[in-house]
Specification:
Layout lengths: L2 E6 L6 H12 L3 E3 H10 L3 H11 L6 H12 L7 E5 L5 H14 L4 E7 L2 H9 L2 E3 L21 E3 L5 H23 L4 E5 L4 H16 L4
Parallel strand pairs: 1-3, 1-4, 2-3, 4-7
Antiparallel strand pairs: 5-6
Helix pairs in contact: 2-3, 4-5, 6-7
Length: 217
């Protein structure tokens, strides 16, 4: 059975960065619904463009679309050793659909990690966050002048405006927090303090996942 990890946490918690580093270190594909959607948007896919408009308003994309995107991705051969999911599931309906999918694929238990950060810190982080206008990569630091990946121009995300940030956090509390409760009682559920330095978060995250891997769902 593979090492199947779900990285959860509110916007600005750093779960995307941690998911990417963990996936790289373990040789696993990082599956981000945001990356999948960005590729579809570049191809002018009408559904993806509609999804982008919703995200730019701080809203969530509907369950049916996200479930279909993830199901298609998890059917590919490169996920057999495991995967790291970032940005999915965001609703209980998506979580239940993912459980059903894992059962059908016989892929083994899910390890769920919640990267927890207090709301005032999240607002501060998001207000100063920038992404590459070319490839969508988050800036490595607030002092960065260009994308460290492709050299592209750094811009503020459309959904990092302060008013939209607060709306995104409200939507997270309302829609996504119940997913944590859905997973909380499982022996493979873990919480890491995301308010620490990134390298400390990574160290604790690795230890927690290794410990959870020995537990049963």
């Amino acid at each position: 059975m593979g090492l199947n990890v779900i990285m959860m946490g509110p916007p600005g918690a750093g779960k995307g960065t941690q998911a990417g580093q963990f996936a790289k270190d373990r040789g696993l594909p990082k599956i981000s619904t945001g990356d999948i959607l960005r590729e579809a948007i570049k191809e002018n896919n009408p559904t993806a463009l509609a999804a982008k408009a919703r995200m730019d308003r701080g809203e969530l994309v509907d369950d049916a679309m996200m479930i279909a995107i993830v199901a298609d991705r998890l059917a590919k051969s490169d996920v057999q050793p495991g995967f790291v999911l970032d940005g999915f599931p965001r609703t209980v309906a998506q979580a239940r659909a993912l459980d059903d999918l894992m059962d059908r694929l016989g892929s083994g238990p899910l390890i769920v990690v919640d990267v927890a950060v207090p709301e005032p810190e999240l607002v501060k982080r998001l207000a100063g966050r920038r992404i590459c206008s070319n490839c969508g990569t988050n800036a490595a630091s607030l002092d960065a002048t260009a994308c460290g990946k492709c050299g592209g121009r750094l811009v503020q995300r459309a959904d990092d405006d302060q008013g939209i940030v607060l709306e995104r956090l409200r939507v997270y509390q309302q829609s996504t927090k119940p997913v944590l409760e859905y997973y909380r009682e499982r022996p493979t559920f873990r919480v890491v303090n995301g308010a620490q330095a990134p390298e400390r978060v990574a160290s604790e995250l690795n230890a927690l996942i290794d410990h959870a891997a020995a537990a049963k769902r």
